[in-house]
Amino acid sequence: MHKALPRKILVRVPNWIGDAVMCEPALRGLRSLFPAAELTILARPAIAELFTAYSGLDRVLVYDDKVAHAGIAGKWLLAGSLRRHGFDLAVLFQNAFEAAFITWLAGIPRRYGYATDGRVLFLTEPVAVPHRDRPVHQVEYYWNMLKPIGLSGAVPLPMLHVSADEDRMADARLASAGIDSSDLIIGVNPGSTYGRAKRWLPDRFADVARQLAERLEKEECAHVAVALLGARGEEPLGKDIASRIDCRSIVLSGATSIRELMAVVKRCRLLITNDTGPMHIAAAFGVPIVAVFGPTDSRMTAPYRQERSVVREAVDCAPCLLRECPIDHRCMTQVSVGRVYDAAMKQIRADTLTGNKLAGDTLMSQETAPPATKLSACRPANLSTVLDGYTIFLDRDGTLNADPGYIKSPDQLELFPGVPEALARLKRAGARLILVTNQSGVARGLLSQDDLAAVHAKLNHILDGVGASLDAIYFCPHHPDDGCDCRKPNPGMIAQAVRERRVDLERAYLIGDHVRDIELAKRIGARSVLVTTGVVRPQESERLKETALAPDWIASSMTEAADWLLCDAGRLPDQANDGRAIHR
Questions:
Q1: Taking a C-beta distance cutoff of 8 angstroms, is the pair 27, 13 a contact?
Q2: For the stretch 73-108, what's the b/e string if a residue is b when 16 or more beta carbons lie within 10 angstroms of its beta carbon?
Q3: Residue range of the domain that includes 515
Q4: Gap between the Cα atoms of 203 and 241, Å rounded
Q5: Contact 420, 427 (CB under 8 A)
Q6: 433 and 398 share a domain?
Q7: 8 A C-beta contact, residue 559 and residue 511
Q8: Alpha carbon distance 234, 239 (integer Å)
Q9: Where does the pLDDT of residue 374 fall: very low under 50, low under 70, confident under 90, or very high at 90 and above?
Q10: C-alpha span between 446 and 438 (Å, rounded)
């Protein structure tokens, strides 16, 4: 399938929340295959809400099969609506016969998807279904469907995004129950819309939550609260568990929209759950999970690449995939409170180590770093808000991407491994990301400003796809001999950001690969991270430690830079430091 061919693509996403989240990496991959195409998803109302703020989409269409699109007349109405959009390709992640039939009825000329459910006659490009004797995780199942049209590479983790306003609304909702933004929240999701066979016992959820709250309050010296989550109809289950625990709690079962649920789950320190949609939402936000599995197959639907999150009993009859257990529910009753509690503590400890630990080859070690930058006890209580109000200025060449000299076209732009994911972590923590880059190639006649705009469009597209969108891009197009005030280390670009974006320099960091980046940070009073992926090599960076241009931290990658920055911001006092201002 030629990449330039599809102009308007319709994507039919799965009907269940968990499946839709597991489909997200493939959706991101589809966008990367056809960056110029208009991408629209068709989804049931709850799933449409899941993708409301998804940056890789141009449009979200709602398939309301209960009301507007119910019955044959409703399907005809929907097909007519789709026909008017003029789609030339339909990609069907949803496996049902109906998905292929509706897109055929809509006259979409190319219809691509797995040859399942007897629908092969309605597909113009059917894809062979994987053999059932080799279980494939559902994330990879969706990803692999796109391989025949050119998708390749490692499968990324699912990712979701909520806005800063949605974060604030979640905080306000929790505050109404006396839960402060600095409190640790244990999420408990005890229900399952699929059926009661997937549910662990309510009293055991309560016992684990109570023990964890007591342990965390002692070990982390923090207030702990429990948030009971669930779908409509599960309110009695949530209230029953809340009545059994001693710490503060809030019952949100059946009381949140999908977007509100996402924002609350993102706030959790840990989620204890059955195999459900909120489990996958938590995974997409990087929240540690303990998932009790019974009748379903954890090899296919566990949180992706989080095998240690699963607790299950190896009984002969599981996985049976039944909604109701016809015998004694042994797959669930044999899972003890102690096993789930132990798994939860391991997840919390592992997450704390991941959040605190820099790789062993980081040049400025904890032993040699200045006291203010040591990483002991640095994990913030709330990673979703630790960078609220902060701006991170980013250099480009040598920091985000390899620097071949002058990047003249989008094809030359290659981000370093881990950069998009690291920036997404900073974004999820509340930071604004602003690019500040010297581009003297414009003045030298090596590229035009239109060429530069095309390069930055590709950069934005890559970062948007992982939830790490840049808030602004500033560049200096002048020759080094022009004497402008915007070429780094001069602060002209920063001054412009302050005027236009109301940047608070008392809450600013700068990450770069060059000495001039560190000098600029010192001029504006920002804290700085030097990454040794560009001009300043690892051996040279050692000499900087003894000079006036010593950065606050030296990292060998953007991933390490993000690790340190999250910890550093979590330790800083919530007030301005004297003397930080632009030097004009």
A1: yes
A2: ebbeebbeebeeeebebbbbbbbbebbbbbbbbbeb
A3: 360-571
A4: 7
A5: no
A6: yes
A7: no
A8: 9
A9: very low
A10: 14
Helix (H, G, I), strand (E, B) or coil at 111: strand
CA-CA distances (angstroms) from residue 319 to 116, 325, 340, 425, 547? 22, 11, 19, 35, 62
Same domain, 369 and 341: no
Task: Summarize pLDDT for 479-508 with one digit per residue, the tens.
Answer: 988 889 999 999 999 999 999 888 999 899
In a domain, 584, yes or no: no
Report d(CA 501, CA 488) in Å as an integer: 19
Same domain, 314 and 210: yes
Percentage of the chain lying above the pLDDT 70 cut: 89
H or E stretch covering 433? strand 432-438
Q: Quick one: tokens of 510?
A: 């700068």
369 near 530, Cβ under 8 Å?
A: no
Residues 130 and 11 sit within 8 Å (Cβ to Cβ) = no
Residues 373 and 237 in one domain: no
Among 79-83, 322-326, 346-350, 383-387, the range scoring the smallest mean pLDDT is 383-387
HSE-up of residue 66 (Cα within 13 Å, Cβ side) = 5
Task: Let me know whether 338 and 373 are in one domain.
Answer: no
Domain count, the chain: 3
395 is catalytic: yes
Catalytic entry in 397, 517, 552, 563: 397
Type of residue found at 261? L
Per annotation, catalytic residue among 19, 183, 275, 395:
395
Summary mean pLDDT of the chain:
86
364 and 327 together in one domain: no
342 is catalytic: no
Q: Say whether 479 sits in a helix, a strand or coil.
A: coil
CATH number (domain holding residue 463): 3.40.50.1000
In angstroms, the CA 466 to CA 55 distance is: 8
Domain co-membership, 524 together with 398 = yes
Domain annotation covers residue 159:
no
Cα-Cα-Cα-Cα dihedral sign, residues 316, 322, 327, 328:
positive
Is position 576 within any domain? no
Position 539 scores a pLDDT of 52
Residue 65: predicted pLDDT: 86
Q: Residue 465 has what pLDDT?
A: 84
Calculate the alpha carbon distances from 14 to 50, 63, 92, 363, 503 in Å.
12, 11, 9, 46, 41
Q: In the numeric block, which tokens belong to residue 560?
A: 């390490």
